[in-house]
Specification:
With about 325 residues, the chain is an alpha/beta fold. About 40% of the residues lie in helices and about 10% in strands. It has a single domain, classed as Alpha-Beta Barrel (TIM Barrel), CATH 3.20.20. The N terminus is likely disordered. It comes from Haloferax denitrificans ATCC 35960.
Amino acid sequence: MRERKEKGDSGARGDPRVTRAEPSESGPGFAVCLTHDVDRPYKTYQGLYYAAKSNPGYHLRTLLRRENPYWQFEEVMALERDLGVRSSFYFLNEPSLLETGSLSDWLEPKNWVEHLGRYDLDSASIADAVRDLDGGGWEVGIHGSFRSCDDFDRLRTEKRELEAVLGHEVVGGRQHHLKLGPNTWRYHRELGLKYDASPGSSSENGFQHGYRPFRPFDDDFVVFPLTLMEVSLPDPGSAFDEAWAECERLLDEAEANDAVMTVLWHPRYFNEDEFPGYRRLYRRIIERALDRGAWVGPVADYYRTFLAERTDEESSETETESATAGDAGRSPSP
């Protein structure tokens, strides 16, 4: 990995209710952190919804034949492995309404949407995917459920259950629907998480929260703002050039400001039958970032390498590993 000299920082902007801290780290300069929120690895009720809008034959067929077009772990891994990079996968552990819902919860439609799309972390297929990702050098992190941002006990349970499947502690993650409460980051820090990657938008992209990760408590807990979510772009299936122009604009801005650009691509968007163009667009972002000499990899790798407090001995070991890692700009592959 190649390190670059810092050009300064705009600070964290936007949300007025959190404490801001000027970053003091000298990271690699321009970097792109790759992330995937695992919201719905199975296509269930969505098939009926999409069938009512367009192409009913395809969507009903995926349900009746029990096809699983949203299970894209192997495809994402193959794409990233081909490019010599890794990424972060954040797994959701949404509680079942049948176990925890009150009468008022049952009468709230949005709660049923979350319930009907949920999956079990300890199911054989999900557990295998978690361990395959972890064993291959990808980061597995927590995707805090919709209410966990305001519920310490719920977030603690979700963290423990994910770590039980994973076999070791997680470093960080992102809240479902990017939802943050007044104490969410304090909960994260108290539970031993080292970072959060939630601040951002599903409708707008850019560096509204600054060009660099920041420390809201002036300690080792770090926040990585979200720069780009795929749904904020023009549909690359019908307007690929427009979508790419926006991505390239963000890459230009990131490179010019030595920014850490965090990208979110939900796994289901790698299904070319339903979301044409998104896989190609994601690949192009990575290729162009690498061509520009950016560091590209998982959020946890960036945190451990450039932001975590280390002893002199650990720092020396990391510098030696970085010097022999291979191609500049790539997150080292195992």
